[in-house]
Amino acid sequence: MRATSTRVAVLAAGALITATTETLWPLIAIAVVEGSLLGLTGPASGVLLVRLAPDEHLGRANSLFSMVLRLAPIAGSPLGAWLVVVGGLPSVMVLAAVGCAVWLVCAAHVTHGMPRPEARTSGPSVLRRSGDGFRLLAAHPRLLWMFVACFCLDLAFAWPAEVALPLQASAKGWGVGTVALVLAAFSVGALASAAAGSALAHRIPVFLKLVVTGTGLAAGMAAMALMPSPLTLAGVACAVGLFSGLNGPALVTAYQQAVPEGRMGAAMSILSLATIGAAPVSLALFSAVSLALFSAVSLHLGVTGTWLLCAALAFLSPLAAAVGLRAPAGKTAHPGRRSPPRPSPPPLPCEADMTATDPRHRPGSPASATPCSPTRSRP
């Protein structure tokens, strides 16, 4: 809530700055602050979803959330481009600030009545606690393997979608419209399967959602690199979207269900490294690989070969998910934290008390067989 309130103020200030200056550095500073705040609100939103949805319906909730995340860019990107052309960057910043304000109002309504976190009075320093997420992964095998599955998939997916696809379309003379067609086909498939998951995710076997769809997704990525025409490429992209719309929410759900009690905040924060953090790493890593292949052979083979390498990396995701499903769930409290002691049950009432409070009680009856003792308690 605090981070989103600050985002509203930052974006509003950004609208004023961009309206009064044409230099680039203020915009870069706003982007750094906005990105840092977004890195806080993303994991917090994942924690809220776990608290709002019961465990048996968490998969459906994540599928519904995935639908929103996929639909918003489809609707927002054309609107943002139109606003940039018509009103300039300040109008876009104003609309972004209004959107954050709406999010803040909705979050305030949803979290109304939720217990606030206990204030931390002592304990490890902030610097030491910053490694809690990594320690969680090291202590819980299923959590670790689900993290690896998410990371491999996101690392493999960013470069083909953002770099390889435009290069392939340009090299084969298909035009920029092919990029739009392929991304739209992928989005349609992902939206359709996410909608199906929001209704039926609890009825689909976990192995099918995690391993089978993950394998199909990786195979589809490899096939996309070899398609001879825009239409076949769009058809395969739609199939990849169908697999992705089921696989992504299922991975996040399996990860959340493996988190030890009371550790969801640290776990969701570290998961953001496998989602938000994987994209820039993917762009830098595979661009360097593609340039190396290009210098050795040709641009076409460099892009295609790197795309296939990304698909091979994506195959590690269902493999890691399969290993994670065989690992112990480990959904227990953190090793260094003890659960609060349970209150001792009240002692059995003595015979004199029972006689005084229950007129039906008679000495010698079964209820009076236990002698009165101040130290005796119910088993």
Explain the overall architecture.
This protein is mainly alpha-helical. The chain has helices at residues 2-20, 25-52, 58-87, 89-110, 126-129, 132-139, 141-171, 176-200, 206-224, 230-257, 264-275, 278-296, 299-314, 316-326, 351-357. Helix 12 (278-296) packs across helix 13 (299-314). It is globular. It starts with a helix and ends in a 22-residue tail after the last helix.
Overall pLDDT metric? 80
Radius of gyration: 27 Å
C-alpha end-to-end distance: 46 Å
Low-confidence stretches: 332-379
> How many beta-strand runs?
0
Sheet-strand content, in percent, reads: under 5%
What is the SS-derived class?
A: mainly alpha
Task: Enumerate how many helices there are, as a single number.
Answer: 15
Helix content: over 70%
Question: What characterizes the major β-sheet?
Answer: none
Oligomer: single chain
Sum up the overall morphology in one term.
globular
Order of helices and strands: HHHHHHHHHHHHHHH
Write the layout of secondary structure elements.
Elements: H1 2-20, H2 25-52, H3 58-87, H4 89-110, H5 126-129, H6 132-139, H7 141-171, H8 176-200, H9 206-224, H10 230-257, H11 264-275, H12 278-296, H13 299-314, H14 316-326, H15 351-357
